[in-house]
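Chapter review: from sequence to fold.
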Amino acid sequence: MLKKLFKTIISSKAANASDMASVEPNIISRDNHCISRKQISKSALTVMYDLRKAGYEAYLVGGGVRDLLLGLAPKDFDVATNATPEQVLQHFRRARIVGRRFKIAHVRFGREIIEVTTFRAGHEQLENKKGSNSNKSETNDQGMLLRDNVYGNLRDDALRRDFTINALYYSIDGFTVFDYVNGLDDLQNRLIRIIGDANQRYAEDPVRMLRAIRFKAKFDFELEQQTAAPMRSLGHLLNQVAPPRLFDETVKIFLNGHGRQAFELLVEYQLFDTLFPVTAPYLQSEGQQNSENTGEHYYQLICNALNNTDQRVQDHKPVTPAFLFAALLWPAVCEDAAIQLGSGSPKLRALQIAGHNAVDGQIGTIAIPKRFSIAMREIWTLQQRLETAHGKRAIAVLQHPRFRAAYDFLLLREQTGESLDNRGEFWTQLQIEHPVERQHTPRPEGGNRRRRRPRNKDKPAAE
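The token string follows.
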């Protein structure tokens, strides 16, 4: 299929970034690629045309170009330009600068945001000493970029991208595609290749390893040998990444419809151990308190949860990180609860303590927002009630706002082979016999008007 997309590609393989620096770009004319402006967001086109009108360069770049060439519908569109973030801010009324490590401009069009990045340049030649450009480029002792606001030209920017398939630029001047790093070849050959030395590029930003896993799972591409080789030994670098950023990245990995494949790849490349330190030990069979549950059982439970999530994504049904993270941390909760039971705690209290310990041990690596961690704890503690409640108490459980998620989790446990006295069927029948209508609390008269707080008499009214 891809061969039909590119009729003429003049390729020149390059082993590393220094070799590619002297390569002129392959320029693919409109007749020889499949991208049409009709497929591009009107907002992205507006940004590009307005920047060009103001005298700047502007290109569609990254995943938007990659997906269009693959015949897919991009989720978002990014623009690269030689205008600085401050200059972009001057030309768009609804724009703002975000980020410190990488300053970029967000241009808002209603609910759509177009990310505008300034061409980046290499930073190897810059010294991080007093009196130098340390305010623009800064790394830590392990080589991770702490700040990288060194600007360059189009070629520089291409060499600073992560993977060749993401370093393709679409121009509205002549509707051509610019390729400095043989990205079209790799796209055609279904290959994920990092730009430059893999060890250095992963050290600069360890999240690139997670992105490689996500692309491999999503597109079913192969990892180029030198791109894959260092990953097993560099997983520890993920500990340097901010926990909130790792939460965003894991959500992208697991909730894109290919989570099962991504999970297996994370385990294969030994990245899961760093991402989920509280769960990883229990995916092995040794040293577990509950002999009924083996590492293979927990592994399969996570796979089943991801299979269910993937199917919901493909069916365009809603998914929540809370349920998925509840499954990912369940091995640690289950094993810790067994320890608490052995110490004399009641089962409900044991689950509460174990749930608290699991979340507390995980958030240092992946910062799970409280709105999800609270839901996870409720799913876990409700398992005890779902296993034991009968009669009126069971009917009361149906009213719990987390009942449906906890019920699905119970079915997941049974699906994985856990013996629960056929409680899934019990709750299925009970819902048929006692249907519950969950209604929103009605608004008071007056519609959407909010109550005004009384003004502090000691504070003067705004003029």
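Two observations follow directly from the output. Residues 3-22, 125-135, 440-463 have pLDDT under 50 and may be disordered. The two ends are 65 Å apart (CA to CA).
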